[in-house]
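Hi V.,

You were right to ask for the full record rather than a summary. Here it is.
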Amino acid sequence: MNINEHNKKIIKETLNDVVKALNQIGERFYSLPNHYFLDGEIKKTESFKKLELRFMNEFSTRFSNLIQNETSYQRLEYDFEIPKKFMWSGQENLEIRKTFIELSENQNKEVDMLSYFTTYPDFLVHAGQDKTNEENQKLIIEAKLNQNTRKGEIFKDIFHTFIYSNEYNFQCSIMLLVHFDEEKWVNLLNEYVSKGYYIGKKKT
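Predicted structure:
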């Protein structure tokens, strides 16, 4: 088995584990009525920011239960919403900086990019901050559950995922979309790429 076949096998196994965990998540963790009550008042769910957190908490529980006895995960640990040091440390990547500035300027009204880059990806399986070789970087997931998520935030998450795939050599990077139109997502991804934003190097 050559290295590419080995990598493909690892990615396929990881994706299968993710799907197994997702299939165990009850509908109540990713669906809500159009309105909810807070302090006796009806609120719209688009301002209800805890849905994504609730969903990923349940996913992390299901996923950790699945992998706890699998040897391929024994050196690794899963983390939920922790920062990775990539933007402001070591040798700065000028392509990342360029996209960061352009997204800050073009999407400024939608996303505070500086604030975003002090926050965290949704879910990681890895071996720590400073071990960037591929075998120590198993999985990253970004999840979006709001079908009305603004373009600036989608671009931010695409950018984020490409950074983790390239700068930290993550074996498997997933953008998990729930209640989000597939055609809309493909159009946004194509627009992101067409604008020349950072995508890193293509892996073979």
